[in-house]
From TrEMBL, chain A:
This is Glycine/betaine ABC transporter permease. Residues 148-327, 462-642 form the ABC transmembrane type-1 domain. InterPro entries: MetI-like (IPR000515), MetI-like_sf (IPR035906). SUPFAM superfamilies: MetI-like.
Automatic annotation (TrEMBL), chain B:
The keyword Nucleotide-binding applies. It comes from Actinoplanes nipponensis. This is Glycine/betaine ABC transporter ATP-binding protein. CDD domains: ABC_Pro_Gly_Betaine (cd03294). GO terms for molecular function: ATP binding; ATP hydrolysis activity.
């Protein structure tokens, strides 16, 4: 990208040239004027044709989905599609969930804590084992033992399925070009789908409860499992494969003895990513009646009881950290450069197993093993609620002023413009500016998404959601670029930042609602704050990497030419980090959308609220489902418009054969 | 006895219409022209040669000359476009996948420039890999691995991992892995190019020693002329996918086929490579000759002292036949000059 820009500018910079003569490489002379001109025209057309905002009624799409649900409910036990298809799927998944449920509860609390520690000790080392034991104990201490285990059951079921399906698919995607090419667009769409969008179709096909939640989670968690596995298999050095081929290995021997072992650390990372995604989704599935910590949080959020939500949020964070540390350490250990003695490898698991069995048997035989000791309980609910009240009492003016200022200056004007724009004008604008920014193909896809939203009959809500997303994205980028640049320029700042970012990225999205609700109560603005907190860490990371990736030789040359630090930043580092910035914007906007929609739970309204209401009230189901699709379409729209160069580079890395 | 390897009019063309080049006028184009016209790269072009049992056959050329592609075509690690390869009389291109695997497992083993060791396996299991995939039991393959391990001088390193070894030791593991299946033919693809010069010399000595001890047929790819001259019974020089010349080291140095080869061998100390055969002249009728003749196959350097001290020209014989004589006048150009002499 930057190469073509430089090329195009070379003739302009050539000395001794007065008037730029037309040449094949020169950009059109009017190109610079084109964008402002188009903006002016668009604004003029808008002023001429803007309409007052009519509220979304129950559109044809919502009615259709409502009828669809009625049909499904009537035929669930007779239609062959359900009788021999979805119902068996549901049954199979529910058997798996029951089996894991039975196993985890069968261990008893002492057995499960020991098992977590033993597993961590075997795959990740004793430090991680201590962390795991402490973490699992904390579930009981917080008084959330059963909720935590339920969440763990769903997470493990979904991850097990995601790995069983995703790893072979990833291998296929890396080895069979046709499969890789077919999967790529599917995975793209799956990855930009906000968590909320999965839920309604799941209830339609699989009713509510654990099986539907597991399948929704599976769908959410499987893309990274496939992608990262494919990446790992693709990165196996060709020289090693060739050497094994020259010795006469069959294809299966190559896979089993060379490719899979060499890709093992990457595959463990794929499992890690699948677990983190699954955990984040499992909490959201509380909305379709899945048991676990999500239930606690949803109920607490509905009552704006921050304290009660805090305990559950803490338990989720602890679970995320424990599972993340175990799998990350396991990935490190799986690296071929880590050599452990054969004896430890053989005896370790046996000892661990013996300890788990012993503790489980002891726990089941004694009375204290039946239930987590009540004497160890502790809760943060009361102090947190007191702190929240204190904040409300003392900071109310400040937070309220901030909320109102943002609403009045940014949110309301943008929302007004968007909601009063006729949908066809919006479509034309998307096509034109999309083509300029991301190319004609992306513009057409984005345009189709716009038309789809209109067809779903949720135009007004979609535009309100879009306004919220835009404001949150701007804020995200401001903070993200600021911290990212600071992190790239000051090593000490980066050292402080890194663990914070690590922690932030392991937390499931739901948790981010808590501080936002604590500060700003239930409102549209709360969703924005949560979205910004949620999306800033990855943006910071991408910006920092982009700036740091600027070659040291270029920076050195610029410094030796006498650049000030400011000139270095603005003239060298930021322009050269453009791809990183574009990628960050793309990532940020997709994450913001996901969170803004979840904000429907805390008063953000619009599409998110439609989805939540669809779960709560039967008559709103059709509208909720339509809203889910509208969210997906919004995601596609935003993703296509911002895809720029960054995403493409990522894909190429997957496709590239290892050299 | 058939040649161990016989390569006959072998072609390898990479690119979109690779199959439509050989046998058409396109095949006569130069490499660059072909690339410009069709986008195809002719890596190996119409190559034929034979390797005799027990011979060390070196293929030498600069990078991009097609030598690595050529060696990979021998066991179809790269599928040839046309032509034929026979190994021990059996046509390789006609082999079923199963038969081909048999060939790779038992007949022909390869040593690679970048080793290609499995980082997650200990040295002993790397060496035993070839036996493992044949289904040889663990005890037997470890016994065999230990044998070849000491053959390449790596005793005591069995349980280390590849990344704990130096480059030279890693390549010894690669060599041991190739030897473990006891193949009749060993292919070396620039095996020592990634190593330091001193270690490279050790490894070359190692290969000579192994060749003397185990008597295999070796095909050795290199871009290093010194290496080629040290190791090769015969050397094939490749350029732009074609064989320019195939001959013994002294044929290459003594009678380069064209300017390209001549350029290659210009820096070679001729007296070290050429034998007396290349510098004899006919004896004049009335000439007084030394009593003790010299065999024609003696390398020039080894005769310098005697020729310089001898008062008379020394007769050069091939068995009982006298080829001519040699004296100081004949010796000097070989020691100092680059003028191509003509064989007697």
């Amino acid at each position: 990208m930057s190469a073509t820009v430089t090329d195009a500018r070379v003739p302009v910079a050539a000395p001794g040239e007065d008037a730029p003569a037309p040449g094949p490489r020169r950009p059109l002379p009017g190109r610079r004027l084109l964008v402002p001109l188009l903006l002016l025209v668009t604004a003029g057309v808008y002023l001429a044709v803007r309409t007052s905002a009519p509220a979304d009624g129950d559109g044809a799409a919502a009615r259709f989905f409502g009828e669809l649900r009625d049909w499904v409910d009537a035929n669930r036990d007779t239609s062959p599609l359900f009788l021999y298809g979805f119902n068996y799927l549901r049954l199979g998944v529910s058997l798996l969930v029951d089996a894991i449920h039975g196993a985890l509860y069968g261990l008893g609390w002492a057995g499960l804590v020991t098992a977590a520690g033993a597993l961590a000790a075997v795959v990740a080392g004793w430090r991680t084992a201590l962390l795991a034991v402490a973490g699992f104990l904390s579930f009981g201490v917080l008084g959330l033992w059963e909720e935590s285990v339920d969440t763990l059951v769903l997470t493990l079921s979904a991850v097990l399925l995601a790995v069983l399906i995703g790893v072979p698919l990833g291998v296929l995607a890396a080895r069979v070009p046709a499969v890789g090419a077919a999967l790529r667009p599917v995975l793209d769409v799956m990855q930009i789908m906000p968590t909320f969008a999965y839920l309604a179709p799941m209830t339609l096909l699989f009713l509510i409860g654990s099986p539907a939640a597991t399948i929704a989670t599976l769908i959410y968690a499987i893309p990274p499992a496939i992608r990262i596995t494919a990446l790992g298999i693709g990165e196996v050095p060709a020289a090693t494969v060739e050497a094994a081929t020259a010795l006469g290995s069959t294809r299966w021997q190559l896979l089993g003895k060379v490719r899979l072992p060499l890709a093992r650390p990457t595959i463990v990372l794929a499992v890690n990513q699948a677990i983190m995604m699954a955990l984040s989704m499992v909490v959201v599935t509380a909305l379709i009646d899945a048991p676990g910590l999500g239930q606690t949080i949803v109920q607490a959020l509905e009552r704006v009881n921050v304290g009660a939500a805090f305990d559950a949020g803490l338990a989720i964070v602890v679970m995320a950290v424990v599972l993340d540390r175990i799998t990350t350490r396991a990935a490190h250990r799986a690296a071929p450069t880590v050599h452990r003695s054969v004896r430890v490898r053989a005896v370790g698991p046996l000892v661990a197993l013996a300890v788990v069995v012993a503790v489980t048997v002891l726990g089941r035989m004694s009375s204290w093993g039946a239930e987590f000791p009540a004497a160890w309980r502790a809760s943060f609910a009361v102090p947190v609620n007191e702190a929240t009240r204190w904040v409300e009492f003392h900071w109310y003016d400040a937070t309220e002023a901030l909320k109102n200022a943002v609403s009045a200056v940014l949110l309301d004007p943008i929302e007004t413009v968007l909601t009063t724009t006729p949908w066809w004008l919006f479509l034309v604008a998307v096509l034109i500016f999309g083509a300029l920014a991301s190319g004609p193909r992306a513009a057409v896809v984005a345009g189709l998404a716009v038309a789809g939203v209109q067809a779903l009959g949720l135009w007004q809500h979609a535009m309100q959601t879009l306004a919220t997303v835009l404001v949150a994205t701007v804020a995200t980028m401001v903070f993200g670029v600021l911290f990212g640049v600071l992190g790239a320029r000051h090593d000490r700042f980066a050292r402080v930042l890194r663990p914070v970012l690590d922690a932030a990225q392991t937390m499931p999205s739901f948790v981010y609602l808590l501080p936002a609700v604590a500060l700003f109560g239930a409102s549209r603005f709360t969703a924005i704050v949560a979205a910004v907190i949620y999306a800033v860490p990855p943006v910071v990371r991408l910006v920092e990497r982009g700036v740091r990736d600027v070659p040291a030789t270029v920076v050195e040359a610029a410094v030796s030419a006498g650049s000030t630090p400011r000139q270095l930043l603005w003239k060298v580092q930021l322009p050269m980090a453009r791809r990183g910035l574009l990628l960050a914007a793309n990532q940020g906007i997709v994450m913001v959308l996901a969170m803004v929609v979840v904000g429907g739970l805390v008063g953000a309204g619009a599409l998110g609220y439609d989805v939540v209401a669809g779960f709560a009230q039967r008559e709103d189901f059709g509208r909720g489902l339509a809203a889910g699709f509208a969210i997906v379409l919004l995601g596609v729209l935003l993703d296509r418009l911002t895809q720029g160069a960054g995403r493409r580079a990522d894909h190429d890395r997957l496709r590239q054969p290892a050299t | 006895m058939p040649p161990t390897i016989a390569v006959d009019r072998l072609w390898k063309v990479f690119g979109p219409k690779a199959g439509k080049v050989v046998g058409t006028p396109l095949a006569d184009l130069s490499r660059a022209e072909l690339r410009a016209r069709t986008g195809c790269l002719a890596a190996v072009r119409d190559v034929s040669f034979q390797v005799e049992p027990g011979e060390v056959f070196v293929v030498m050329g600069l990078s991009g000359s097609g030598k690595s592609t050529l060696v990979r075509c021998l066991t179809r690690l790269i599928e040839p476009t046309s032509g034929e390869v026979h190994i021990d009389g059996e046509p390789v291109r006609a082999m079923s996948p199963k038969r081909l695997r048999e060939l790779r497992r038992h007949g022909v083993a390869m040593v690679f420039q970048h080793f290609g060791l499995l980082p997650h396996r200990q040295v002993v299991d790397n060496i035993a890999y070839g036996l493992e995939i044949q289904g040889v039991g663990k005890a037997e393959r470890h016994r065999r691995a230990a044998e070849v391990l000491s053959l390449v001088g790596l005793d005591g390193h069995e349980h280390q991992y590849p990344d704990q070894l130096s480059g030279g030791m890693q390549q010894r593991v690669g060599l041991a892995r190739a030897l473990a299946t006891d193949p009749a033919v060993l292919l070396f693809d620039e095996p020592f190019s990634a190593l330091d010069p001193l270690i490279r010399r050790d490894m070359q000595a190692e290969v000579r020693r192994l060749h003397a001890e185990v008597g295999k047929t070796l095909v050795f790819i290199t871009h290093d002329l010194a290496e080629a001259l040290t190791l090769g019974d015969r050397i094939a020089v490749m350029r732009d996918g074609r064989l320019v010349q195939v001959g013994t080291p002294e044929e290459l140095v003594g009678a380069p086929a064209d300017d390209y080869v001549a350029d290659f061998v210009r820096e070679v100390p001729r007296a070290d490579v050429l034998t007396l055969r290349w510098i004899t002249r006919p004896a004049r009728p009335d000439e007084v000759l030394a009593d003790q003749p010299l065999p024609a196959g003696t390398v020039i350097r080894d005769t310098i002292e005697r020729v310089l001290r001898a008062p008379h020209p020394i007769p050069v014989v091939d068995g009982d036949e006298r080829l001519g004589v040699v004296d100081r006048e004949q010796l000097l150009p070989a020691l100092i000059g680059h003028r191509p002499p003509v064989p007697a």
